[in-house]
Amino acid sequence: MTQSANRNRVLSGMQPTNTLHLGNYLGALKNWVRMQDAMECLYCVVDMHAITQDVGYAHAESLTAATRGVTAAYIAAGIDPKKSPIFNQSQVPEHAELAWIFNCVARVGWLDRMTQFKEKSGKHKERASVGLYTYPVLMAADILVYKATHVPVGEDQKQHLELARDIAQKFNNDFSVPDFFPLPEPVITGPATRVMSLRDGTKKMSKSDESDFSRINLTDDADTIAQKIRKARTDPAPLPTSKKEMEGRPEAENLINIFAGLSGHSIEQVMADYGGQSFSAFKNALSELAVATLSPLAAEMRRLTGDPAEIDNILRAGAEKARAIAGPIVAEVKRNVGFVA
Ligand code: TYM
Predict the structure, then answer these.
(1) Class assignment of domain 212-302?
(2) Which residue among 151, 157, 161, 215 is best mutated to probe the pocket of ligand 1, counting the most ligand atoms within 8 A of its Cβ?
């Protein structure tokens, strides 16, 4: 057996595009913090993915700031960089090296099925960057360059994870190395694996939504959070008391899921506490909870981003630890492929 098959390792990442929002926090980051105690974890800021849509000098400065901002969010949320290396993808060149080899393993037909590319490229597919098309291949490399076995993500990344498993499997078959890469498992847990827009309960909360009222940013101040929750779309009926009553009420479901995600209570518990009440009473309670959770996080992020040199040191140190794991794995991959070293 190779080292891959008998050891658990966690890898996950976020794109430094704009600031993170409540969906990123509840769908992923909160679980990352929890997993640190159970397994070896590495957390990446995927800056190379962040240039698949916007690239150029006008974007460069905001990319640098967003990379530091996302790093600060990881730490403020409770990731301990001494325990779990935090690094930006571009400082670990093995990601790109493995991605190239995976580009030659993955099939065009597989990528053609990726729904995120269809969504992000919109009507003008031919004008999208090639990088946006092969985005999920780089993501597979991010994971497998560490032979990671567990990948905590929100529900929207499920298809990408399936692709990573297909690539791992095909590599193992093509090179006759049955256990070389593990088949990484998505870890999609908690009551808020898909946080929806506050303006439209059928749309995912997203960094790219043009309405800032659709999302709660991790950098929002208390008044802004309260205002966004107050204005969140709801329906005229009181809060549902059961899952059955929740059906067809996406906005009610979303706010309940968010409450459960923030409080650590189950969805059933939240419905037992607030079911039958008016939305205005519930929104007050949700506002208080969101402010109590997110305000200290925002304050800590502000403190950390005030010292960019310290953040850069953390990223460099994390990259060094990450390279120590990725280097030997990529060397072995190259031997399998037949590259002369
Ligand atoms: P990104 O940057 O879009 O999102 C980061 C994480 O947040 C989760 N997420 C959500 N969860 C619940 N509700 C939402 N509305 C919501 N929006 C985002 C995402 O599922 C994700 O876990 N492709 C990835 C980044 C990536 C990656 C990787 C992840 C690159 N390489 C390797 C894991 C492993 C992405 O764009 O995430």
Answers:
(1) mainly alpha
(2) 157
